[in-house]
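Quick log. Single chain, no ligands specified.
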Amino acid sequence: MFHLPQFDIDRLSADFTGQHCCVEYDGKPYTGVILDIDDADIQVQCMHAVGENRFFWQLKKSDVCWYSSDRLLALIPKPQNVTNCHKEANRAIRSAEA
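-> predicted structure:
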């Protein structure tokens, strides 16, 4: 489970384009990159999860969606390579398993 600091939505600006982030979708956190920002929404290309704290970029079809800005949980450091295709979020933003 992610342990993320509260993000101040009022700080949201075009300067965050290209930043790695965590968004909430269907009650679950997803890591991704902010592609675009408009008045109250952000466009994020999300990674796919493949186990506990393992993610990958889907090559054939990108997972790009618009999210309301209140779904932005946090800006995060760039996920680190674990294998040639799998990445891992910084362990400092992960909490211990329940």
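The mean pLDDT is 81.
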